[in-house]
Every structure is written in C-alpha cells, then in structure tokens.
Amino acid sequence: MRLLTHNMLSSNIKGVVNGFPLRIEVEKVVEKQVDFNPDFLKNMFSKIEWKPLVDASRTMGYAELPEEAESSKLDSHDFLQRFHHALLELHLEEGALICPETGRRFPVNKVDPTLSYRRKLELKFPPIKSRRRTPKTITVPIIWRQPVASRSP
C-alpha cells in the first residue's frame, strides 16, 4: 500500500468521530521504482494532508520530508523528488493500519493489499479537498418484481 492511499483512508467504524489519520504498524516496507511525474505531484499536493504524510513516511523509515510544506516548494526539483519517493515509491507490504480512536487493527499484507471485504466497509476515503461541489447522495428504493408466468395457448 502506498502512502498516497494511506493519506486518503480513514476509519469508518460505527461511532468513530475522528478516524484520520490511521496509524501505521510496519512489518515490511518495499521501495518500488515509479516514473517521476512532476505535474501529477503538483496536482496532488493540494489534496494531501501534509502532517500525516510526514508522520507515515517517518514510520516507514523515510525522514527526508520537511515538517511543513508550502506550494512555493513545488518549484524545487529536489523537493518534488522527495515528495514523489514518499508518496509513490514507499510500499507497506506487511503490517497494519490502526484506528486512532478505537485502536482497531486493519491488517495489510502482500497477499491481500485491498484488505478484506468486511475491512473495506470499515474504512472510507474522506472527501477530497476541491473547489467542485460534491453531489448529494440519493437513495433509490429497489422494487423487486415477480416474474410473469408465461401463458401457453
């Protein structure tokens, strides 16, 4: 699991008020080479919660990100390289995500990087900071109809 994904997840357990950021318990970290794309990084910068990214990268053994970052740093190639490495190249292969409020562990492993179905229901992606209006959720009732018996002449 990349730190990009980690930065978007929060706990969705019933009754949890503040389920972000999930703490990381590391067993195995792998670095995987990813093509460098400065435009992608510049677009993602405004959507990333910086402090949780810094804390998570330090937990995974990478301490090269500054404590605070402003959009003016996006002009620095060195900063973009460090941001790229932390966000996209560090992968948590074995470990757990831990709810900050309840302490519940969500295992992460190489075999099932998407977590189990039940665990997926308990984690959610918080709304992305954007200027666009988010659509309202609409509940549509499902009406099950009985099949019509075929008539024979």
UniProtKB/TrEMBL annotation:
It comes from Cucurbita maxima. One of its GO terms (molecular function) is protein heterodimerization activity. This is Multifunctional methyltransferase subunit TRM112-like protein At1g22270 isoform X1. InterPro entries: Trm112, Trm112-like. Coiled coil: none annotated. One of its GO terms (biological process) is tRNA methylation. Belongs to the TRM112 family. It comes from the Eukaryota. Interacts with TRM9. It holds the Pfam family Trm112p.
